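From the shared-data thread, chain only:
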Amino acid sequence: MEIIGYLSSILIGVALGLIGGGGSILTVPVLVYLFSIDAVMATSYSLFIVGLTSAVGSIAYFKKGLVNIRTAIVFGIPSIVAVFATRAYLVPAIPKEVFTIGNFIVTKSILMMLLFAVLMIAASYSMIKKDTKKVIEADGAQTFNYPLILIEGAVVGVLTGLVGAGGGFLIIPALVLLSKLPMKEAVGTSLVIIAAKSLIGFFGEGGDATVDWIFLCKVSAFAIAGIFIGATLSKKIDGAKLKPAFGWFVLIMGMYIILKETILK
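Structure, as tokens:
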């Protein structure tokens, strides 16, 4: 199972390198089901893996001038604050046994995985649906819809803090629509935002849990290797065409997690 886990870690990076976002959605299921890590700890580990992988992935975009620093700061600040607050205060406040339905006890770990599954299904929809609207790139000075950006940034931050996913599938459309960024620039800027909020969320987290740094670095190394493979493949394969297929895979995974954590428990 560990070998499959490390191979799957490569696929996380490949997906990120190929389609620019959504790859991190696989990190928590890989950690929980292939490495047998507790769901709450897995969301914490995922923040580090996703953050480090996104940081490495953003380097190529920096070199090409496809990172909008101003947008990253405007969108990133509410997102970072929300992640930090969620990991430091909200997650520790969730009780080990949340509620009971008949003989079925919904524990903190089960709740985390169910929230993650719902997020996966939402992410899959955004990947599967065909974009019929063409985004018109605005000329002149860049304008920001500050109220919506603040709300979107905070929502993405809370979700990242709760389930450990980068939220690229939410950030990229927001940057295109609210900040009027071209798609490639939105992807590059998104990676910087994900890296900052994930790593700050991980290192700012409260709790006494011991981190297995050797394991964490191994998984991160495989995911980073996957990014370079994905970036190489993206020159030969159109990532946009693969996105719907990856979306269906994420949808099936999300539904499987719901079944596994409830009926099959």
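The mean pLDDT is 85.
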